[in-house]
Specification:
Blueprint lengths: L1 H20 L4 H20 L3 H10 L1 H93 L1 H6 L1 H8 L3 H84 L5 H11 L6 E6 L2 E9 H14 L12
Antiparallel strand pairs: 1-2
Helix pairs in contact: 1-2, 1-3, 2-3, 2-4, 2-8, 2-9, 4-6, 4-7
Length: 320
């Protein structure tokens, strides 16, 4: 009877703690489990192995739950790490392909610019030749008109006898005028064809430059993704390390039930101080941030983000 009465306060305390843990939040489970570890240590320190075992037994479900959650998120982190690696390779490949296309477009643009320059120089020379030839054609046209009038108008012939006599008997004027006109026509056609070719080349060049501008815009977007992906990859890798520490802690806590009484106090004395050991840990609701903090703070921060459903490892877009 005395034994029962002595144990009742302990049972009540454990039940109250268990009742708090049944709030069904990771934070409540974490606080309850840590509290029971401390109480078990205190019991062992005063030599009460029965009370210590009682606390350890009643924390088992909580620790199992916390360990399972940590392992689940650690697996998510490992999956995300693989996604980061795959996405990094895709991004690097896309950037390299984009860069290669830009260089090809720049080469084509430079080649086309040189061809357009040659065509424009040729067009300028043809225009100058056409002007000179057209002027010469006009002179011969006037001479042809003069000769025709000499032949058809006797009064005009005798009025300009000296000039008409020579031109009437020189057939080369007619032949030369036609030849020059053919040259003018050929030059005109060539100038028109060259102008059309230049126009098409300029359109093609504009299309190349538009595509080049598009690829440069795409490259900027791709390059902007790199630091984000790199930061996510760092956060995921850090999360794997931190969650490994978390699972090791809870697994060690569970192992206390399987060792003999003589070893429990030593294990607890080794285990509890690890809660105050600091390390570089992620802020689980913001992959952009990391902090130097204790394992205890990491346990509680992780639990809070699981409860709030804002842990970055559960974000569908992480490393994508």
């Amino acid at each position: 009877m005395r034994r029962i009465m002595a144990v009742l306060p302990l049972v009540l305390a454990v039940c109250l703690a268990a009742g708090g843990a049944r709030a069904d939040t990771q934070q409540a489970l974490t606080h309850a489990a840590l509290d029971k570890l401390v109480r078990a240590t205190e019991a062992l320190e005063r030599g009460d192995t029965g009370d210590a075992l009682f606390y350890l037994v009643y924390m088992q479900n909580e620790v199992n739950n916390l360990s399972a959650t940590a392992q689940q998120f650690r697996q998510s982190a490992r999956t995300a790490e693989q996604q980061c690696q795959a996405r990094s390779l895709q991004l690097i490949s896309a950037i390299e392909t984009n860069y290669a296309r830009q260089r090809e477009l720049e080469r084509q643009d430079a080649q086309l610019e040189a061809e357009i320059r040659v065509q424009r120089d040729q067009a300028a020379r043809d225009a100058a030749t056409l002007t000179t030839t057209a002027q010469l054609a006009e002179i011969h046209r006037q001479e042809t008109v003069f000769r025709a009038r000499c032949k058809s108008d006797n009064a005009f012939y005798y009025e300009h006898f000296g000039q008409c006599f020579i031109r009437v008997w020189e057939d080369r004027f007619t032949t030369r005028a036609e030849q020059i006109q053919h040259e003018v026509d050929d030059l005109t056609r060539r100038s028109q064809a060259l102008a059309a070719a230049i126009n098409e080349a300029v359109k093609h060049q504009q299309a190349l430059q538009d595509e080049l501008a598009q690829h440069k815009g795409e490259e900027s977007l791709l390059q902007a993704q790199r630091p984000v992906l790199e930061q996510q990859d760092r956060a995921v890798r850090l999360a794997i390390t931190s969650l490994s520490d978390v699972t090791v802690f809870w697994d060690t806590a569970l192992s206390l039930l399987t060792v003999n009484v003589a070893n429990r106090l030593g294990l607890l004395r080794d285990l509890l101080p690890t809660l105050d050991v600091t390390s570089h840990a992620p802020v689980f609701d913001d992959y952009d941030r990391a902090e130097i903090r204790s394992l205890r703070a990491t346990l509680l921060d992780f639990a809070k983000t699981v409860d709030n459903r804002n842990n970055f490892l559960s974000t569908p877009t992480i490393c994508r």
